Amino acid sequence: MWYSKFMFTGIIEETGKVKSLVFKSNGAEIVITCNTILEDIKIGDSIAINGVCQTVIQYSPTEFVAEISDETLKVTTLGNLKSGDVVNLERALTLSSRLGGHIVSGHVDCKGKFVDIEKLSDFYNLSFEIPQEQEKYVVYKGSITINGISLTVAEIEQNIVKVAIIPHTFNNTNLKYLKIGEEVNIETDILGKYVEKFLSAKDNKKGISMDFLQENGFI
């Protein structure tokens, strides 16, 4: 089966566990134990680990191995993982896949911090602090990826993002293991970045602005 090298949906297929994380002179090697996602995987395929796109370099029926670069260790939380930690896993899209979440690249923009949890009758409100410079890419009712999970922004106040989590998502991802103050991987909506790039382009001759996009229902 053909897999995209760079596109995910943010719909977690299963959780796995870190078997080992070994640091090397130029990065690290991680071994993840899991089940479902290894059914038709092959060497070179991409798997998102907590939202970070990684390449499979070895696998068996119960685990796979990936190499983590120095840059990935700096930008993401993968370097904080320990043996036994639960991670969210998703294979890259296939040509026949449904796009159940939103377009996710697996290239993490920054690390955020888990700051609050509110349990309501049948779901949870989770709040995360993101770097101030990333706030411009987050919009109310827009999409955001947290630890690889496609979520809808329920509220944004300055650089605090609140998301509403249904019981299924809470119970079938590693969100339920988060502790206050713990770091998470954040990927903002890629469409917002393209809009910013287009608005700043020198060939924007028609004078398209944020006001124009809002007035015409694009944002």
Can you lay out the helices and strands and say which pair or pack?
Elements: E1 14-24, E2 27-33, E3 46-49, E4 52-59, E5 63-69, H1 70-75, E6 86-91, E7 110-119, E8 124-129, E9 143-146, E10 149-157, E11 160-165, H2 167-171, E12 183-188, H3 190-200, H4 210-215
Antiparallel strand pairs: 1-2, 1-6, 2-5, 3-4, 3-6, 4-5, 7-8, 7-12, 8-11, 9-10, 9-12, 10-11
Our measurement of the CA-to-CA distance between the termini, rounded to an integer number of angstroms, reads 36 Å
The shape is globular
Instruction: State which percent range the strand residues make up.
Output: 35-45%
Q: Are there runs of 5+ residues with pLDDT below 50, and where?
A: none
Please estimate the helix content: 10-25%
What string gives the helices and strands in order?
EEEEEHEEEEEEHEHH
Mean model confidence by pLDDT: 88
Can you offer a commentary on this structure?
- The protein has 219 residues and is mainly β.
- It is built from 4 helices and 12 strands; from the N terminus they run βββββαββββββαβαα.
- β9 (143-146) and β10 (149-157) form a beta hairpin.
- The two termini are 36 Å apart.
- The relative contact order is 0.17.
In brief:
The protein is mainly beta and 219 residues long. Helices cover 13% and strands 38% of the residues. A hairpin with a 2-residue loop joins strand 10 (149-157) and strand 11.
